[in-house]
Each structure stands twice: as C-alpha cells, then as structure tokens.
Amino acid sequence: MTLEELLSRHGIRPTPNRLLVARALEESGRPVSMSELETAIDSIDKSGIFRTLVLFRDKHLVHVLEDGGDGARYELCHSHDSEHDDDLHVHFYCEKCRKTFCLEDIHIPRVSLPQGWSAHTVNYMIKGVCPSCSRA
Predict the structure, then answer these.
(1) In sequence order, what DSSP letters do the residues of the chain get, joined into one string?
(2) How many domains does the chain divide into?
(3) Whole-model pTM?
(4) 42 Cβ neighbours under 8 A, 6+ residues apart
(5) Each residue of 77-111: pLDDT tens digit?
(6) Each residue's pLDDT tens digit, 45-59
(7) Dihedral angle computed from the Cα positions of residues 19, 21, 26 and 32, in that order, rounded to the nearest 10 degrees
C-alpha cells in the first residue's frame, strides 16, 4: 500500500506536506521525536510538522509514545482503520543511546479493566540497553 493510499484510508487528504511527514516517519524505521522530524524535514516549519502529527494522531495514523526520556515519540501506524489502532506492539527505550525501538513481534497483552473503566490508548514500554549499546 502506498503512503497516499494509507493516508486516504485514514480519511486524510494526501497533501505534499503530509506526505513528507508520513515518509519521514516511515523511513525512520523507529519511533522518532519532534526534533528528529524537524532535522529530517527542513522544508516544513515546526508548527506545520506538529499540526500534521496532531491530525495523524486524531485519525489513528501515528502512535504517540511517552518514553520517559525527552518527551513524545511518533511512529507511523500501519492500521487500516481511522477509528482505532490494530497494530499495537511493545516498544523498547534504550537508556544509553536514548532511542526507542519497535518490537513488532511482541504484542501488548490484553488487560481486563474493572467495570466502569475505559481505555483510550496503551503504551507498553520496556527500558534497558539495546544490543548496539551493549556491544560498545
């Protein structure tokens, strides 16, 4: 599926700036911070990138992760639904290099909430040291 098709499937008009942000997220291969996106996309100002990320979040095209490091990180969601995420997985935050990685083969376990409780998002983060930093 192309990025244009993915955006359209989520009810987002694929404008050139939105495609640039989506492409930067896809090419990163891991969740990235706002500052990393600013560095990767020098043709859009910070507010334009942020507005695009808010739209993507609202349409379930990005996951927003709080990694306990330097703030939020964003990753492209390959869900095919604009109402909810269907590709939730575990993330790993390296305390040495401060990068966040997707562990896509490890799905977030189902949790039964008590009656009256309602979950809107899940963030399953493991912290430690990544293989590259372990070897160094």
Answers:
(1) --HHHHHHHTT----HHHHHHHHHHHHH-S-EEHHHHHHH-TTS-HHHHHHHHHHHHHTTSEEEEE-SSSSEEEEE---S-SSS-S--EEEEEETTT--EEEEEEEEPPP-PPPTT---S----EEEE--HHHHH-
(2) 1
(3) 0.75
(4) none
(5) 866 554 555 567 788 888 898 888 888 888 788 88
(6) 999 999 999 999 888
(7) -170
Q: Which residues contact 125 (CB under 8 A, 6 or more apart)?
A: 65, 66, 67, 68, 90, 91, 92, 93, 100
Looking up residue 46, the CATH number of its domain turns out to be 1.10.10.10
Range of the domain at 11: 3-135
